[in-house]
Specification:
The protein is an alpha/beta fold and 296 residues long. It has two domains: 164 residues, Vaccinia Virus protein VP39 (Rossmann fold, 3-Layer(aba) Sandwich), CATH 3.40.50; 93 residues, Adenine-specific Methyltransferase, Domain 2 (Adenine-specific Methyltransferase, domain 2, Orthogonal Bundle), CATH 1.10.1020.10. 35% of the residues lie in helices and 16% in strands. Helix 8 links the parallel strand 4 and strand 5.
């Protein structure tokens, strides 16, 4: 198990901390030698993807899908053109660390963000700037406005690791068995076959207005989308495939809020402990519960 097989970006809501709980709740056949297809829409930073790839050698094929075009372009560049990506990241890393104070680094960040938002870069340049903005922006957040402009502020992170050669190279190797698709989560159905396992990590339903970071693309992911995802899970279940889904537990804020309990009432709902990683009020950071929902 190579420790360098890990996410090459940091995404808000990443599931690294939930890996033990998720691993405890995957189907039993995955832990045998039986081959299966792993399918992950909403791949995001890929913490679960990379854990599965380095842990379960019986994954015959993996398919990842995400509606975020910039993210998928970056995965494809890591898979298909890692050397040029590393060269571009190394150059940006050197330029960034040539700045001697935070204000200079912030100005550099804003220039690169503006260049990224012009949407006329090569795929390699786009991927390099995507990773740079992820590493130096606020807390790994990806957020766009209605015009699809990336608008995350400068993060003032101490010594961000912009260029991680070993992670890029090792990740490139494991991505060779992964099909990478840009699009809506419903596209994933056509890749399912016997012994297919779906893991869904959609944009979480916000616990309150101030915790809403679901503007993951210009269309957002509202309650209508949450219901559409549930209907897709019904389709998967009807066809005999297994799924595991994670989402926020609204009862952290309101014990009477049964949105997910009602929506997924015919499935198993498990509440697990997680640590809140983003909140504007530092006093509100701490352990809360999240939901794992499965059909097996």
């Amino acid at each position: 198990m190579n420790k360098n097989i890990k996410p090459f970006i940091k995404f808000v809501g990443g599931k690294k901390q939930l890996i033990p709980e998720i691993n405890n709740n995957i189907p039993d056949y995955i832990k045998s030698d039986e081959e299966f297809t792993y399918i992950e829409p909403f791949v995001g930073g890929g913490a679960i993807l990379f854990y599965m790839l380095k842990t379960y050698k019986n994954i015959k094929k993996a398919v990842i899908i995400d509606i975020n075009e910039d993210l998928i372009k970056t995965y494809n560049i890591v898979k298909n053109n890692p050397i040029k990506l590393c060269n571009a990241l190394s150059e940006m890393n050197n330029e960034y660390y040539s700045m001697i104070d935070d204000e200079s680094k912030k100005s550099y960040f804003l220039r690169e963000r503006e260049r990224f938002n012009q949407r006329n870069l090569s795929d390699v340049e786009n991927a390099a700037k995507f990773i740079f903005l992820n590493k130096t922006g606020f807390n790994g957040l990806y957020r766009v406005n209605s015009k699809n402009k990336f608008n995350v502020p400068f993060g003032r992170i101490i010594n961000p690791k912009i260029f991680d050669l070993q992670t890029i190279i090792e990740t490139n190797k494991v991505l060779q068995k992964v099909e990478i698709i840009n699009g809506d989560f419903e596209k994933s159905f056509k890749f399912a076959n016997k012994n297919s396992f779906f893991y869904f990590d959609p944009p979480y339903k916000p616990l309150n207005k101030t915790s809403s970071f679901t503007k993951y693309n210009s269309n957002g992911f509202d309650d209508v989308e949450q219901v559409r995802l549930k209907n897709f899970c019904d389709k998967i279940d009807d066809c005999g495939f297994d799924f595991l889904l994670s989402n926020s537990d609204l009862k952290n804020i309101d014990e009477d809020n049964n949105f997910f309990d009602e929506l997924y009432k015919e499935y198993k709902i498990i509440r697990v402990s997680a640590k809140r990683s983003i909140n504007s009020n530092g006093n509100k950071r701490g352990n809360i519960s999240e939901l794992l929902i499965k059909n097996y």
